[in-house]
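Reply to dn_fold:

You asked what the input looked like. This is it:
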Amino acid sequence: MTVAIDCAGRIAYLWDAFEKKNAFTDGWRYMKTLRFGIIGCGMMGREFASAAARWFHLPGMAVRPEIVAICRRNLSPENVHWFRDNIPTIKQVTDDFRELLDNPDVEAVYISVPHNLHQRFYCAALEAGKHVMGEKPFGIDKRASDAIVACAGKHPDLFVRCSSQFMFFPAVQRIGRMIEAGAFGTIIEVKAGFLHCSDLDPAKPINWKRMVEYNGEYGCMGDLGPHVCSVPFRAGWVPVNVRAVLSNIMPERPDSDGRMVPCRTWDNATLLCEARDSRSGDIFPLTLRTQRICPGRKNDWYLEILGTKACAKFSTTDANTLGVLEYTGGEQRWQKIAMGQEVPFESITHGIFQFGVSDAILQMWAGFLYEFDKGRSLTGFSGTVTVQETTLWHQLFTAALESHRTGSVVTVSS
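and this is what came back:
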């Protein structure tokens, strides 16, 4: 005998059970819901949808996202089918973002669109009274960023944050706790980077991230840089100045028809900064690298902190290992610590199991919903990127462009 299981019905049953019972409380309770619309149904839109569908993975949460509307220009049938087949709560599908923003059932929006559309879409969402989770870099350039920040300032009742998931890896959470505890002592040097090899193939067709009119003059800095800045900026390590070296390694790429067209975005960027520790006032070197052409590095986000009392290093290449050196005198030894599910928002996954990118995205969304609900982040390093932090990276990337253009050290304006 074959038993057919209705997927939508099964999900609805699980949600009903989850809303009534919380594993961390005695008895039954009601879970609050924040109804979302997704504008931009590409890779990250699908990742959010997947995270929302896994919400019962986080039994301690008191609020959950519910996706009720989606919008994407030139909606393909396959794209619509994926969302509708997997998310039974969707009631609106449109190719006009204004129709989604006019929907009174939508309380918050997740916006994942090309950088040139950030200012228009983010400001429209805020003016429509929607809470916003936006993708980086929160504007194609500093002028667009300033406009978004000004619009957010007019709506202090709305919750506005930016996406960046790498801070939520267990090893990085451990590093965050070390920073908050002052465990590193005096900071000697910090290095952070995000390295890809995806553009090493010269035959790879050009896409919007390689076009200045869509991605912006920042190039790789605008797309990868916010991830690199997330931990240093949250730690209060503020760039004072920058000397930047930018590289356009592949000045041409084939278009969809195979014709070679100009590729004017920066492929690689190395930024050497003097940074100030906002706690101590100490100045130290901060090196930030964003590279789309780094042979052998598929998707390597890394962080290295050297201090007088302790050091730490982490890379997603070995995503479940944290390197720590604690100095108390005598011989100096690096130790490798195997990390499991050491996460700010407890999940049903056993603590010994390995952690991955999809887990980090789920934790990031938990951070967003927790802070929205409570009015504060759970810990210093478990909240999503703030508007103030997005402003700081635009100041840095703008100064980096000027540094490369003039071949000089440029002050990062505040």
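Residues 1-29 have pLDDT under 50 and may be disordered.
Hope that clears it up.
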